[in-house]
Amino acid sequence: MSRGPLGYTLLELVVVMAILAMATALVAPPSYRMIQTWQEATEVQDVIEQIERLPGTVRARGKPLATDAEDSKVPVDLPQDWTLRMETPLRILANGACSDAQATLITAQQSIELRIQAPFCRVQRIEP
């Protein structure tokens, strides 16, 4: 009783590699976009948390913070190529009390409307 050769032929291995390559080509782009979306959502949440922490920072400094609609210099670290535009002025008193304000966070993928609520600078996303 003779046994056939053990192992796989080169042709069988090439066919399996081709199938794996096609499957990867189909799955990789959506997966990459999903990872980018998750990363941007995390960065957006980080910016919102930084805005919500501003009253504590201002209270620790002991100096009020005021931004104008034209001069939207809010001390928030933004990812590269992102902008935070204040639609209405944001004022935070030296004791940490915050005024109502509206802002637009412009990311690489989207534009997000934000409402900053007095007196604690709670940030709420405005859905379109």
Question: Could you provide a short overview of the structure?
Answer:
The chain has 128 residues and is α+β, with helices and mostly antiparallel strands. The chain is 41% helix and 20% strand. The longest helix is centred in the first third of the chain and has 52 residues, at 10-61.
Defining key terms:
about 130 residues; alpha+beta; 4-stranded antiparallel β-sheet; two-stranded antiparallel ribbon; about 40% helix
SSE diagram, text form:
Elements lengths: L9 H52 L3 E2 L16 E4 L4 E2 L8 E6 L4 E7 L4 E5 L2
Antiparallel strand pairs: 1-3, 2-4, 4-5, 5-6
Would you kindly provide a written description of the structure presented here, covering whatever features stand out?
The chain is an alpha+beta fold and 128 residues long. 41% of the residues lie in helices and 20% in strands. The protein is built from one helix and six strands; from the N terminus they run αββββββ. The strands form two sheets. Strands 2-4-5-6 form a four-stranded antiparallel sheet, covered by helices on one side. Strands 1-3 form a two-stranded antiparallel ribbon. β5 (111-117) and β6 form a beta hairpin. It is rod-shaped.
